[in-house]
Every structure is written in C-alpha cells, then in structure tokens.
Amino acid sequence: MSFTKQLGALRAAIGVGAWAAPDTTGKLFGLDPVGNPQASYLARLFGVRDIALAAGTLGTDGASRKLWLQLGIACDVADAAAGVLARRKGVLPAWSAVLVTATAVGAAVTGVLALREE
Questions:
Q1: 36-40, Cβ contacts within 8 angstroms, sequence gap of 24 or more
Q2: Which domain covers residue 41, as residue numbers?
Q3: What is the pLDDT of residues 8-40, one digit of tens each?
Q4: Which pLDDT does position 49 carry in this prediction?
Q5: 103-107, long-range: CB within 8 Å, 24+ apart, which pairs?
Q6: Residue 101: what are its φ and ψ, rounded to 5°?
Q7: Strand runs (DSSP E) across the chain, as ranges?
Q8: Are 108 and 71 spatial neighbours (Cβ–Cβ below 8 Å)?
Q9: For the chain, what is the domain count?
Q10: Which of 51, 87, 89, 97 is the most exposed place for a label (fewest CB within 10 A)?
C-alpha cells in the first residue's frame, strides 16, 4: 500500500473515531474527557479536520493531491508543536504528550514520504 493510501486511511480512521466517539478516542491518547467535558467538542473539531484531509488526499491526484499532502503535513507539524507546548505548560501528562506528539510526527513523516512518492 502506498504511503498516500496509508496516510489517508489513518487520517480517516482517527478522524471518524474522534468525531463519532470523542471520549473513547481521547482516553486512548491518555486524555481525561470526564475531567474536561469540553474536550469532546475539540476532539470533534480535530476529527472532522482529519476526515477532510483524508478525503482531499485520497480523492485527488497530481498537483491537487500534493497540495492536500502539504496541508496535512502543516497540520501535523502544528499538532506536534501543540503536544510539546501542552506538556511544557503542564496541561498534558507526560505519557499523553508523548502519544499525541509521536502520532503527529509519524503522520508528518508519512506525509513527507507520500509527497516524495507523488
């Protein structure tokens, strides 16, 4: 399977999970949706963004697909930075920060590999 398809499938799965079951998805990343009930709202915002990125990546080709991949990489780098900043500020426990940051970095790397594939 190409890196583009892997990335699109991963984005779709995480996006659907975050939108359809935000509390469960949050718990998988070590977050506390009970202690922060607004987190489900934010998870759904993140989820729909990932669904849109998946659709754009998988539903286009050529220059349009490259643009979608670049946009996804930008989002992933911003997500990784947010994980680091949240840990520094003490908003995320260490393990949660590692999980969310590593996931974002992994997606960014996969995006770069997919971009190179194109």
A1: none
A2: 3-117
A3: 999 999 999 999 999 999 999 888 999 999 999
A4: 98
A5: 103/14, 103/29, 103/79, 104/76, 104/77, 104/79, 104/80, 105/76, 105/80, 107/7, 107/10, 107/11, 107/72, 107/76, 107/79
A6: -70, -45
A7: none
A8: no
A9: 1
A10: 89
Nearest-angstrom CA–CA distance, 24 and 55: 23
pTM: 0.93
Count of residues in the chain: 118
**Rounded alpha-carbon distances, angstroms, from residue 29 to 1, 3, 6, 103, 115:** 26, 23, 20, 10, 27
Per-residue DSSP letter, 29: T
Question: What span, in angstroms and rounded, lies between the C-alpha atoms of 10 and 12?
Answer: 5
Q: What amino acid is encoded at 111 in this protein?
A: G
The one-digit pLDDT tens for each residue of the chain (118 residues) are 899 999 999 999 999 999 999 999 999 988 899 999 999 999 999 999 999 999 999 999 999 999 999 999 999 999 999 999 999 999 999 999 999 999 999 999 999 999 999 9
